[in-house]
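Example record

The entry below shows one chain as it appears in the dataset: sequence first, then structure tokens.
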Amino acid sequence: MIDAFISLLRLDILLPWILSMILGVFIGAMPGLTATMGVALIVPLTFHMQPIAGLAMILGLSFTAIFAGDIPATFLRVPGTPASGAAVLDGYEMSKQGKGSLAIMLDLFCSTLGGLIGVLLLITISPTLARFALKFTHFEYFWLGVLGLSMSAVITKGSNVKGLISITGGILISTIGIDVSTGYPRFTFGNINLMGGISFIPVMIGLFGISEVIRAVATHSQEQMTGAAVIQSGKVRIGEILKIMFRNKRLIGQSSLIGTLIGALPGAGADIAAWVSYGMAKKTSRKPEEFGTGSEEGVVAPTTANNAALGGTWIPALVFGIPGDTITAIVLGAMLMYGLKPGPLVFQDNKELVNQIFAVALVSQAFLLVLGYLGIKAFAWMFKFPRNVVLAGITIFSLVGAFAMRSNVFDVFLVVLFGIAGFFMEKAEIPLAPFILGLVLGPMIEDNLRIGLIKSDGRLLPFVSRPISAVFALVFLFLFLSEPAKALVRKLGKGRKGA
């Protein structure tokens, strides 16, 4: 392993590696530009490089892009990447309280530590976790989606009915497009742009970004907007960050483990890991009522999990040649292009390369700490422009980012449409987060439910008779019934006291 670290100390590896990580900061912080898009753009540049140089570029960019998505999420309430959706909930609230610098620095340190733990788990227990992940069929993935959806009840503030309305809206929007079973278009109304469904990226940008611009314009006069700063400056001491992290050491460990496990499940990814981790953090917190109001735990949990998930996605990719997410799907294609065949034999036939990949993943965390800090400083300087200039910038970057995804003007229309919808949802106090969760998990639940029913000839028994499915079903029942059971116990207790 030491030889692997030494082999990386070459200019032809370090230079493209660091430049790609700088590019990752920019891509992550620009709403609409995803880490997957960044990786897809740089793969052609690696054709004539050594395999490890190309893989270093891909790994480095993915780590910085996932973190950098939290920068606009914290300061502007605009998630830079899908994995930053959960970071909006408490990071932005802390920013509004003048603690934006604290929130984003805590975010950076937790991202680095989460990524480090995820990589260490990748190195030590990857074969075991990959074998477990391969046991998942459509039945288990259905329950995984349902468990993720159940987190909406945890992350919803206020009325449960309004939370249910929000998540139902997200699920309904997710059904638009070609039916996976019949191949028949649903709710497209003859519009060819809806055939492929509605991507959650323009929806997310609209709900969180454009709605904030509309709200700011509606509630501020021109004079107030011109003089207001988006970020309040203030130095944050590293000692203070470390103290917060030590106070939340159990949560960091829990979120890292959740992130790695979910990352190891093909198709799950960092965005689902962040939401599930946030929900579990609130469920296990001593102060759940503080979540959504600027809670430190609400910042720590999702950002630790999404970077840990990146390490997890490499587990099935390396061990069995099955991509853990869209990034590792591109990586597998690149490895085949390099003449490398991922799978169980890669640890024997290309042991040196595997060790180099592990070394790159570890060193990338150190680079992330430095480049992430410089990225924060650069964007914080930009955010100090007058409020009206920043709002105009948010609008332009949001619309350009949405268009850049598929070069489709229809996505720009969706951003505006859901921006208006988000504004009215907030006025009606309908939470936005469950809507995004329903949109993300809706296809996963529906597809796996329908395919599972086809495989079992319409029988529901396999969904609860398989061991892992049965465990997931019991966990779901526990989460669903725990609150009513507690309420019943409290009511009975009061009744006895009254008697």
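Notes for this example: The chain has 22 helices and two strands. The chain has two domains: 2-455, 466-499.
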